Amino acid sequence: MAGKKEMRWKVAEKKLRFLRMRENYAEFSTKISPAVERAVEERRAPSTVILDVFPKESITIGYFEDPEKCLDLDFCREAGIEVARRRNTGGAILGGKDSAFMVLSVDTREDWVPTNTLQKGFELGLTSMAKAIREVFGIDALWRPLNDVEVEGRKVVASSARLENDVLTLRCVVNVAPPERRILERALRVPPEKMRDKRAKSPSERVTSLEEELGREVREEEIMDLVERTVREIFGEDLLLQELEMTPLEREYVGEFEKMFCSRDWFWGRSQRERARGVPRGAKCVEGLHKAQAGLLRTTLWVEAGRIVEVLITGDFHAKPLSVIERMERVLVGREAKIDAILDGLRGVMGSPEVELPGMAEEDFLSSFSKALASIH
User: Fold this and answer.
1) Is-contact 150 141, C-beta < 8 A?
2) pTM for this structure?
3) pLDDT given at position 191
4) Do 240 and 298 lie in a common domain?
5) Which of 63, 104, 73 has its CA nearest to residue 261?
6) Mean per-residue pLDDT for 284-311?
7) What percent of the chain has pLDDT over 90?
């Protein structure tokens, strides 16, 4: 494309471009967010923070989630709730009407960016947001590792992250208005394992909102104050925020991602129903579910004649790079359906220096795979 060289962004100052939007969660996640991320990765746009206020309800699921395992898709369809698979990790999240989204995409190669890991990105970003909530609203909000901000055990901020090509994207859904609890109860499929370490025992009990905690409406100016305080806590008071617009190149990328991330292949790509299509008819399918600090880890194995013929690893955990899970799956195909053979393959992938699985340990994979193997006989 002519003119691309001239659009290369020169990075020197400690500054963030600020974009203000009003797009629903699913549309934003499959078009705008990945377009901005790509431009920042290519250094054709500066590090950016976005405030998006949702005009209606929608849901996104994480990159590693199986749609049918985490959502009641029939209910979503009947209720007219748009659902999309985002490119970021984590679980299914409801973006409620009038709630807000802070999306931070930063080039970790810049010397003023204080982290280049997912673990530190979650900790720094969410402790900063919790502090900003306390300052702006007087609500006793605290970071709950790995990726939530809570008020007395109730989630007020849900987050997901992505770290690819040296660009960290932290996405925080702030429950400003009370969420539609009917949607939370009917749309989200939450296994009992997910709630065992929580005070609440259902998705609707698990969440709260700023307006419920305050007993009043929250103005958009207050949310803007929250975003500004959060990013200044992360990067320092000398941070320069510049309110700008998306570039023509980013708008071009929006069109490309719309075709890619709104397709059936993208939505169903990491699902049991699609993975099973290439499996021999006589193979036995078994599953193991485990709750790690990072979230749910679900292992689905297809086994024939004592060997693994296909593997699918899903859940609401986080990983860098995203391709690490596919690498795990590929290395296990053809191995004996025994835990020693599986762990030998996993260790070869997990030991790579570029791999990061925050809140996940070898023992978590051991538990998930062991549960699957136990149900073979």
Assistant:
1) yes
2) 0.93
3) 85
4) no
5) 63
6) 96
7) 91
